[in-house]
Amino acid sequence: MKSLMTLCVTFIVFAALVWPVFVVVSLLFSYLAGEGSVINTWYLEPKRNLLAHFIEGYKNSVPVAVALAAIPVLCAAAPRKLKILRLAVLIVLPLAGFAIANYFYASPQSVQLAFISSGMALAAISLTLSGLALRVKR
Amino acid sequence: MTHFAPHQIDVPAARSERKGYRARLAGLCFAALCAAGLLPDITYADNAILIGGGYDLQGSQGQIELNTKWVQQILETRGMQVTTFYTDGENPGLDVHYLQPESDYASPLEPLSRIFDTVELDRTNYRNHSVERVTDSTERSILLPQLRDLLGLESTNSTLLVYNGHGNQSLSTPDKVTMHLWGDTVIQAQEVHTLLEETSSPFRFVMTQCYSGGFHRIAYDKPDTGITLADGPARCGFTAESAYRLSEGCSSSINSSDYRDYTTFFFAALTGINRQGKPLDINPDQNNDGVTTLREAHFYTLANAVSTDLPRSTSEHYLSNWAPWYLRWAPTHASLPDNEYAALFGRMASRLSLDPGAPQVARQIQSSLEQITDQRSSLVRSYAKTQNDIESLQSTLQGQLITRWPELVGPHTTAYANLATSGELRRISTIAAALKEYPTLVKLQQQLQQLEHNVLENERDSTQMQKLQRLRKLSTLQEQLLTHGTPHQIDDYNSLVSCEESTLR
Predict the structure, then answer these.
(1) What pLDDT is attached to residue A96?
(2) Helix crossing, A62-76 with A109-137: angle to 10°?
(3) Where are the alpha helices (DSSP H) in chain A?
(4) Chain A: residue nearest B333 by CA?
(5) How far does the CA of residue B324 sit from the closest CA of chain A (Å)?
(6) According to the model, what pLDDT value does residue B23 have?
(7) What is the mean pLDDT of residues A109-131?
(8) CA torsion A16→A17→A18→A22, rounded to 10°?
(9) Residues of B numbered 236-255 whose beta carbons fall under 8 angstroms of chain A's beta carbons: which are they?
(10) pLDDT tens column, B332-347
């Protein structure tokens, strides 16, 4: 029961973090390149517009976030003997990012790196969540 | 004291008539060429509604008047039917204020103005407007019904609305931005949208007021939200700014060579001649088809106006609005696609001594912008300090004068009037100029003026960088629309572009 609860919490927290992580990573890439529409919007439009666009993205990305959140939950639910599977997120999530970029974008080259990096960041978050879950179990 | 002479900028009637004849002849020739298929098929605006002026005397600057007169002359010369609304209409009351040129200013009371007020206040003069053929006032209760008639069902001709004046921001949706009209009244963008629902004739606009970008919402089905365009012929326009920023162009100066506002560049591009009557150095007719469209005039202004304005067209507004959630936050290509905005970016970057093809150009632009912003902070700090120093010195000098002449405390009293009529005020002014601290005050006030100018120049530099960023963004968005947009969205965008590609007669 307790482990099911832990998996549910992991699922929800992870799903909730997918969009913000993607936004932060993309902003970082945009900032480093000196490019990106958000930089313009930040200076030229009220912050409420940015917030509205962020929330719009949050809502629309829910199906993707839910699908991605299943990955760390499945890995965390792996039997103890297959502990190594917990580390699979380090490969699966960046690959998922790569796949999303290629599937949804007409010219994926510009976004691939941001999606793969977001996958890596999410994998790190997933491992942290698993670590926390293990502590709770003990 | 030299007063502003309206005849200096008016076009004499005879000359105007000759120009009108030439324009009609040119129009006939043009029509013949079009009919013969020698010139491209271009749409024209038949009627023009010209609205100008401030919301009260203090808000009705000389630049607005000069812009209105200049635009009126251009539109009439092209043979358009122009209906002009200006401040209080034909009421002979004062409705324009202007700054006497510095070179002409010599007031015996200048020292007192410097100590008790500002020299600008002493240089400010007031008069009735000199705009000719004014149909009526811009006051809401007068203008709105007339706009309804002009734009209403009976009108089948294409209309161009040009507004030169002030505007107010909307803290809710952009369609609530306003034209701030005479008598402190307003007309909101959504009200113009409502007026246009009753007509099926093409409508275009050029608006240069602060927050004018909110008026792009009149092109849409719902003025407050969404990207579905209104039914019927596309409505499109050009604004000096977005719905969130102030625009340049409300100076009290009557020296038009100082003007860098959107109107000045846009209409110069349409005519090929600048405010001083000289041909433009750069040809605004990008495709060299012999006709400068409104869109080409907008591009010319975008690339060449060094002002604080970041202008936009309705099709550009559409692109920014269209950007879907999954593209809005995603990083973009370092290299730009091959389109008109990329070309415009290239030209503008080169003018600003940047290599448009350099891989790090976006980073360079961002760095320059940050550098300019830092400079502005320093300038603003100096400005505030100088202003404080001036106030403190003024207070000291005022104290010294009031101790000797207590009548100076109340400039609206009989005692003060006696000082003025007896000539004593002039004598006091001479004594004030001889006070030990006075030269420092003059120096500080001149410094403040220079700092004000520097801040403005800094903002203009900053806007050039923001323009470059925006052009890159538009270039990418235009490409993204073609690859990610639905056929209907692409059609909508194309209809706006086509609407913008019209010209004056």
Answers:
(1) 94
(2) 50
(3) 2-33, 37-44, 47-60, 62-76, 89-104, 109-137
(4) A110
(5) 9
(6) 41
(7) 90
(8) 140
(9) 242, 244-245
(10) 887 899 999 999 999 9
Q: Which of A87, A97, A94 is nearest to A127 (CA)?
A: A87
CB B38 within 8 A of CB B50: no
Name the residue with tokens 């235009």.
Answer: B478
Contact A34 B366 (CB under 8 A): yes
Residue of B227, B242, B328 to mutate for A, most A C-beta atoms under 10 A: B328
ipTM of model? 0.88
Identify which of B331, B364, B470 has the shortest CB distance to residue A36: B331
Per residue, the 3-state secondary structure of B70-106, as one string, reads HHHHHHHHCCCEEEEEECCCCCCCCCEEEECCHHHCC
Backbone angles phi, psi at B162, to 5 degrees: -120, 125
Query: Which residues 303-332 of chain B have a CB within 8 Å of chain A?
Result: 310, 323, 325-326, 328-332
Please calculate the CA angle A106-A112-A113 and round it to the nearest 5 degrees. 155
Distance CA B44, CA A31 (A): 44
Residues in chain A: 138
- How many Cα atoms sit within 13 Å of B430 on the Cβ side? 4
* CB-based contacts of B296, cutoff 8 Å, min separation 6: B269, B284, B285, B286, B287
pLDDT at B105: 80
| Rounded percentage of chain B residues whose pLDDT exceeds 90 | 76
Residue labelled with tokens 């730009």: B336
Residue A27 contacts residue A36 (beta carbons within 8 Å) = yes
Confidence at A2, pLDDT banded by 50, 70, 90: low
B326: closest chain A residue by CA: A57
Tell me the C-alpha distance between B402 and B408, whole Å. 6
Judge contact between B361 and B355, C-beta under 8 A.
yes
